[in-house]
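sry for the spam today, last one i promise. struct tokens for design, 313 residues
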């Protein structure tokens, strides 16, 4: 929304809230900056759009028909516009404050802070500055903001995705149902249009920008959907961790996918990489050449050695 339109809508709301009697369209036209003073048709179109947009976001514009007047009047009843008094128990306020604190350093920090400020202005004390509770949500994945907005707006998305244990990147088109955090990683759950089935995607494997498709409200999320159960089901029960020695300054993709990276001896770092299929892991690590060395487990190390010997032959 443009700044000019935002100011016009805000002025319209203020005008209709401040009046003690309904105002005609012509009176609103004269009182609210931004409406065309000369073109009647352009004003009527713009005024109708503005009324519809305000109603869509929940602002109750009432229409009054006076039998002694030719044109209807408009106003916003303050009691219908304002929120009722907010009363929360101390534990409920603590939960809200904790939720805002979770997003304090993430991409939703501004929205969370604004919501907390509004509650404080309404008399709800939800400040956890003195609390021993400390939570953070890590959303460093670049794809998170776009996917979160797509889930909120129910818009399709398209992105390039690298499958586990593979360097190949495929284009995926998805109807996003939700974004879930599990074991420190973020996952997208949705309907894969290309495969015609529900799928789970790890955000750290999305490469490049996420593109939105179509208009908001383009699909419906299935009722009774358990996103957390779907994410848990997608992860194989025999998932293991490989310890990989990585040369400093190299293998950025592996470092990003690893669940932990720590300093190692000399010019090496040590990364912990989750995997379920040793052969698939070997195909990925072998492509990194001399910059990655598997230390454990033995079957993953042997699988990489077989790949490298095969390439040498």
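last one done:
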């Amino acid at each position: 929304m443009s700044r000019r339109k935002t100011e016009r809508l805000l002025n319209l709301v203020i005008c209709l809230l401040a009046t003690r009697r309904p105002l005609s369209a012509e009176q609103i036209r004269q009182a609210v900056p931004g409406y065309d003073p000369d073109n009647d048709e352009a004003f009527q179109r713009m005024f109708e759009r503005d009324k519809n947009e305000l109603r869509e976001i929940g602002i109750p514009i009432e229409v009054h028909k006076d039998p002694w007047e030719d044109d209807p009047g408009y106003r916003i009843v303050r009691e219908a516009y304002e929120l009722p008094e907010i009363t929360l128990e101390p534990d409920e306020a603590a939960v809200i404050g904790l939720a805002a604190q979770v997003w304090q350093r993430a991409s939703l920090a501004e929205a969370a802070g604004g919501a907390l400020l509004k509650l404080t202005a309404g008399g709800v004390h939800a400040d956890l500055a003195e609390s021993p509770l400390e939570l953070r949500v890590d959303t460093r994945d670049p794809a998170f903001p776009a996917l979160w907005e797509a889930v909120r707006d129910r818009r399709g998305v398209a992105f390039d995705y690298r499958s586990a244990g593979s360097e190949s990147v495929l284009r995926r088109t998805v109807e996003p149902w939700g974004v879930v955090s599990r074991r420190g990683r973020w996952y997208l759950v949705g309907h894969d249009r290309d495969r015609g089935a529900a799928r789970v995607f790890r955000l750290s494997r999305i490469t490049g920008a996420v593109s939105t498709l179509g208009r908001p409200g383009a699909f419906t999320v299935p009722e009774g959907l358990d996103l957390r159960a779907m994410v848990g089901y997608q992860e194989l029960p025999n998932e293991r961790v490989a310890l990989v020695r990585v040369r400093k300054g190299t293998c950025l993709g592996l470092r990003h996918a690893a669940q932990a990276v720590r300093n190692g001896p000399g010019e090496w770092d040590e990364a912990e990489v989750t995997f379920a299929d040793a052969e698939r892991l070997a195909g990925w690590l072998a492509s990194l050449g001399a910059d990655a060395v598997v230390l454990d487990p033995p079957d993953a190390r042997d699988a990489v050695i077989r790949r490298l010997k095969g390439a040498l032959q």
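DSSP finds eleven helices and eleven strands in the chain. ok im logging off now
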